[in-house]
Amino acid sequence: MKYKFMRFPEGKTKAVTFSYDDNGMSDIRMREVFDKYGLKGTFNVMSYSIGVEGRPSTDNLKEAIANGHEIALHGAHHAALGNLRPIDGIKEVLECRQVVENALGRIVRGYAYSDSGIGKMLNGASYSDIKQYLSDLDIAYARAISGDNDRFLIPSDWHAWMPTAHHTNPGIMKMIEKFVSMDVNKCYCGERQPRLFFVWGHSFEFDNNNNWELLDEICEGLSGHEDTWYASNIDIYDYATAYDRLVWSVDNKRVYNPSLMPVWFDVDGKLYCVKSGETLEL
Ligand SMILES: [Zn+2]
Question: How many whole angstroms from 185 Cα to the centroid of ligand 1?
């Protein structure tokens, strides 16, 4: 065995996901657009915006989940964790998680940093402390910002998950073109890792800029491709984690899947699937 790469469900080589912040009413319109194109998004909500007039109702958020979207956390007060002492950062995340979980009646583990996030550190905050308390609070991943690039990589640090681009990035349509035209299985043999396209922003920006047709363009470009998995942020985290937790023999000829989902991978150009609980002989 020389090269081994994760593949998404059904052996797909690429995935597309979205992350939209602040729980505004235009999220409802955005979710309708995603549903029309068969796309899945993650919507990040502050706890103070739950059950409040002028915001999507709790029933609407539950409906979004039923349609395959994720509702994730965006802080109790929309505060930048990089500006808070650890004790205040812990309260910011924990309070949000408690309120949102109770409102939705489910476990919520996704987070998107608010405000300047981890972009600058004040008041004795440090990234290592933030990562530590997010892990202690069972936050699976935290989406950061300002990392726009067209490498389409799965994050190596889930608590500093940089999206591909904000939807206003002037190069976004070119990046989409590059992404959809890429045939991962035909890349150089050492470069056949799975690829991810991750768009973020705020749905109210489409109202403010009066350019909802841009969302249609983005969705049209990214949707409907057979080699692509359309998933929420937590779907991608859960799947990639299941892959990372496969148990391999020393000679890599035997693999055990302790997770509850089937996992696909490619070894030297050959596609395999190891089912939940199965030990597969390669
Ligand atoms: Zn925000």
Answer: 37
Amino acid at 187: C
Question: Ligand 1 centroid to 117 CA: how many Å?
Answer: 9
- Partnered with residue 71 across adjacent β-strands are 43
| Ligand 1 centroid to residue 46 C-alpha, Å | 8
Q: Report the separation in Å between the CA atom of 209 and the middle of ligand 1, taken as the mean of its atom positions.
A: 17
pLDDT for res 69: 98
Domain ranges of the chain: 11-244, 247-282
Instruction: Give exposure, 246-270, as e/b (b: 16+ Cβ within 10 Å).
Output: beeeeeeeebebebeeebbbbbeee
**Distance from the CA of 78 to the center of ligand 1, in angstroms?**
6
Q: 272 pLDDT exceeds 80? A: yes
Task: Tell me the sheet residues that pair with 264.
Answer: 7, 273
CA 74 to ligand 1 center in whole angstroms: 7
Q: What is the dihedral of CA 160, 166, 169, 174, to 10 degrees?
A: 90
**pLDDT at 111 exceeding the cut of 80:** yes
C-alpha 215, offset from chain centre? 18
Q: At what angle do helices 86-104 and 58-66 cross, to 10 degrees?
A: 80
State the distance from the centre of ligand 1 to the C-alpha of 21, rounded, in angstroms. 5
Task: Name the fold adopted by 11-244.
Answer: TIM Barrel (3.20.20)
Reported pTM:
0.97
